[in-house]
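Can't attach files on this board, so I'm pasting raw text. These are the components:
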Amino acid sequence: MNKNTDYWKENLRLVAILLAIWFAVSFLFGIILADTLDAIRIGGVGLGFWFAQQGSIYTFLALIFVYTKKMNALDRKYDVHEDDD
Amino acid sequence: MDLQTITYLFVGATFALYIGIAFWARASTTGEFYVAGKGIHPVANGMATAADWMSAASFISMAGLIAFNGYGASVFLMGWTGGYVLLALLLAPYLRKFGKFTVPEFIGERYYSRTARVVAVICLILASITYVIGQMKGIGVAFSRFLETDYDTGLYIGMGIVFIYSVMGGMKGITYTQIAQYCVLIFAYTVPAVFISLNITGNPIPQLGILSTMADGNNYMMDKLNTVVSELGFNEYTTQVMGSKLNMFAYTLTLMIGTAGLPHVIIRFFTVPKVKDARSTAGWALVFIAILYTTAPAVGSMARLNLMNTIQTGPVGEVTSNIKYDDRPQWFKNWESTGLLKFEDKNGDGRIQYYNEKNKEFAAKAESYGWKGNEMVKVDRDIMVLANPEIAKLPNWVIALVVAGGLAAALSTAAGLLLAIASAISHDLLKGIFKPEISEKEELMAGRIAMAGAIGLAGYFGLHPPDFAAGTVAIAFGLAASSIFPALMMGIFNKNVNRTGAIAGMVTGIGITMLYVFQHKGIMFIPGTSFLGDMSPNWFFGISPNAFGCVGALANFAVAIIVSKMTAAPPEHIQHLVEDIRVPAGAGAASDH
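---
Top answer:
Structure tokens for the assembled complex are below.
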């Protein structure tokens, strides 16, 4: 039981970190700070605009794959992974 | 070959493919019917999820929204993709571990309550039906514009196709068809985008095209677009906001939670073999979705630029810069005949003036040019994707491809939604509540009948769109965000939330969201019954009704947690159930039932 509690705590920590990044790239960079970030320009568009229409989506992708990889490692570390076929 | 023939050829070929798959992937058990036997590989499942998710709205409407709302439309781009992060991190693996067939089934067992299950079924059916009406309409419109059948015939053909593969194959048939539909729709979306990006910027990759200079090398494409629209009094493309920043924040959040709470998306995660696969399915789904969603800003902005340049061919204010009505291109005439594009020669000069007459400063300037108001009295934004290849003068086969793609998008989403409805009726209501002793064979038959019934109902609404059809997106996302998502998330992450808390939370969440939508848009969207009027000054902190679902969700969380604290804790076996779904081990066993 203790083992499973530790597994769950590590999982929650990972989720919290990833969701913080999720929030930062979309709500923070893409909306709240967009005007400020727009001062930095890449290829004719402001950085805030780029995050809102491109960058946030690429980051979301990275987040899910990082999560999948880390969780699979965590499953093995705590020996709660599924049987291999 | 003329456009008509090629279109028939493309659409006919794709339909034949879908029907072929239907015969190949027939379902013989309830497991295959509801969750495709839980044997779909994550990459294939990701592709099917992407097709399921990307509806006629994503394919046809979104680029138009971007074209006319510029930066403000970012809420759709972020909202409809960011939800997958929530799905992957907060719901998918645990729901897969739980290992049942439907979303209400989870809610019913976790909250040890038939009432909770029924409440979930009602939310699910409401959200799905409102959503499916839009798909049916999309099918009818695409047929009537490009195959020159009438709207009703188009709808019957569409219903017939969905009927064949979803009634026969259930989730198994739908999944394999959706994989084919994804390929058709993504090809149809990106091919014109590549051509247009190449035309305008010389860069064949649309995602880079929007960051490039114009083909003549003088200006950045986005700077050029900003200049062109500002010169005619429109808001600057890259900075125009939708309502306010707070509204954009709430809108994005609502779409994200709504995405993660839409049952037809969630059930896709029940179809993979393992918990591990549920996690990566979300990632693969987003890969396939992102291909379209990162292309959309290019399609939108370049379509806008092409449209403006077609009408305003030179410096603003010079008489010869405005195109003569008689010289208008063929696509202009085609869309005029549908009524979605309308021109009115207000100053009688035989030329087209298209500008923002609501901008007072510019309107004064326009008067000095002898312009008597904006003459493009209607530019329906839904035509942008369909008209785009014509505006960019691309060959006929590209246009035919786009039609087949639009139909694939609408059909795949309709089928996914219909399955969610059918399984809620046959599995949750019939087997779960009314007739638990029903045999598997009977349940499978009931599932097929429920599916046929759902198609009939959706078709009826497609033929007779209710007054509230236009406002339904707000309801679908609002409902999913304010009821289903919080109930699922708390069911996994908070062991203390009990039956009473969950039901009170769901009812409060929906209640608040519906009340807000109805008071601004009319009760059941009947015009004239909105007691506060659909005016932005009356909006709560300027949050539009479509964006309000996240407030309902917050209320749901708060009410559920407080009520649970005041009432008895969930029984011990429920606490064990929660502990069990939190770890992946043993998922294979859980699915045998």
